[in-house]
Amino acid sequence: MDKALKTMIDNMPEKTGKKLEEWIQLLARENFEKHSVAVKFLKTEHGLTHGFANTIVTLSKEKDTPSEDLVVNQYSGKESLKPIYDKLISIVEEFGDDVVITPKKGSVSLIRKIQFALIKPATKTRIDLGLKLKGIEIQGRLENSGPFGAMCTHRIQLQNISDINDEVIKWLSIAYEKSV
Fold this sequence. Notes:
Elements: H1 3-16, H2 20-30, H3 35-46, H4 50-61, H5 67-74, H6 82-93, E1 100-103, E2 108-111, E3 115-121, E4 127-131, E5 143-144, E6 154-158, H7 166-178
Antiparallel strand pairs: 1-2, 2-3, 3-4, 4-6, 5-6
Helix pairs in contact: 2-4, 3-4
């Protein structure tokens, strides 16, 4: 299990009042069909932060699939992109121990207090790095959010590990800093 995710799960009883398994049981009783409805429920009815609510809902749907398997499945047939993913994760882990890395079926969310980035193997030859950078104009490597819609404000397309240059790291760092 990812170190940041394990820390979040370990801190869950203190921060939320319940263990992960208790939250999963609560969601199972409610039987929400949509992810967003379940997240909203946890936030409004139980006062959880978005980060905890999103992680609980994600893990409740994927409780039978370890997070490592989710990442492995994302890069099945796209193995040449995995070093790009690994490099992005190693960079983000250097930002601080408050980063929560949350694998989902098709992407990996990077969360501080809120999601600040999303890593998605978009094609067999490209990773899309979605970033939340409200108020920042499209420039340089920054494009509009493309397929991310409201989840991110910008996107950077990465095809090779060498595409992760100082500019990409700068934008990732700024997104992290803005997510407080």
